[in-house]
Amino acid sequence: MTVDTLPPAERRAIVRDGVAVGVATGAYGISFGAISVTSGLDVWQTCALSLLVFTGASQFALIGVIGAGGAPLSGAVTALLLGTRNTLYGLRLAPLLAWGGWRRFAAAQLVIDESTAMAINRESRPAARVGFLSTGISVFLLWNLATMVGAVGGRALGDPRTYGLDAAVGAAFLALLWPRLRDRRNQVVAALGAVVALGLVPVTAAGVPVLAAGGVALLAGVVSSRADPTEYPGHDDLPGGGHR
Amino acid sequence: MSALWLAVLVTAAGCYLLKLAGLSVPQAVLEHPVVERVADLLPVALLAALVAVQVVADGQALVVDARLVGLGVAVVALLFRAPFLVVVLLAAAAAALVRLL
């Protein structure tokens, strides 16, 4: 891999793509903010989640479990299990970005689906770094801004069911899952996960069914023997990143 | 500290450390095929379970209501490659409409 400098035109093109993904992804922070405050968290807790957790699926999982009446800590465990995929992304990104010291600690917070997708297919280290940073920083800024707007606005809404916000949560999870459903094994695992969870709903406390579905992943991972082609998100999986 | 704040802070610390671990640990430590497959299938199983529970669970009961209509609309929107926010808004609007009727 070369460490030479990036032609200005290429740099501009990468930054433009990163910002486009940031705008599209950041915008749905509005729905996160609104759903979070109607799930029982206050505006500060909602904003703290976007600022400190900063990984959408985990944030939605935490508020989803809490909103359904589950114990906050079982929501936290679900969120952490979903956060493990960022560890995989980091493993792929580390040799590409090759940052040490404080830069690595700062970059770690930006390791998410979007920044990974916009960095891992680049041909040089400078291009990977620019893709990672322009996407990560624009998503971070807009996601947090939109969360605050959604949280403050959501408080004024009243009963979330009137606006169908409870249905919006399921749709949000489905949209996050969707790009991975192109793979046949993932379809089977998803179906089994849903069935296990629903089977446990009547007999366990809220929050437990979702955690138990994690067991399906464990079993399938041990039994099957093939890597997942949808493991890392591609440009087409991102809002604003695909060529539609 | 309230249970909610505790959950927020535990999630924040844990999610940051998971990200940092990926950038920091030697690749060989986690590069076991089974570990990779499990870590890779976890989001699939968990997100599918979250969809199911959010849409048909009401406390300890399983119920079919407007949320299922919302999910159906979300599927159609996703098939048409609608962006995330549009999918979510259409699902909410569909459920709200069903409740109004």
Would you give an account of this structure?
The complex is a heterodimer of chains A (244) and B (101). Chain A has one domain. Chain A has 11 helices and no strands. Chain A has helices at 8-27, 29-38, 43-53, 56-67, 72-97, 101-109, 113-117, 125-155, 165-177, 184-200, 208-223. By secondary structure, chain B is mainly alpha-helical. Helix content of chain B is 80%, strand content 4%. Chain B contains 5 helices and 2 strands, in the order αααββαα. A two-stranded antiparallel sheet of chain B has the order 1-2. In chain B, helix 4 (66-79) runs antiparallel to helix 5 (84-100). The mean pLDDT of chain B is 91. At the A-B interface, helix 1, helix 3, helix 4, helix 5 and helix 6 of A face helix 1, helix 3, strand 2, helix 4 and helix 5 of B.
Biggest interface between chains: A-B, 108 and 77 residues
Structural class of chain B: mainly alpha
Strand content of chain B: under 5%
Q: How many alpha or pi helices of chain B? A: 5
SS-derived structural category of chain A? mainly alpha
Low-pLDDT segments, ≥5 res of chain B? none
Number of strands of chain B: 2
Q: Roughly how much helix do the residues of chain B carry, as a percent range?
A: over 70%
Distance separating the two termini of chain A: 31 Å
Number of strands of chain A: 0
- The count of domains of chain A is 1
Spatial strand order of the main sheet of chain B: 1-2
Q: What is the percentage of strand-forming residues of chain A?
A: under 5%
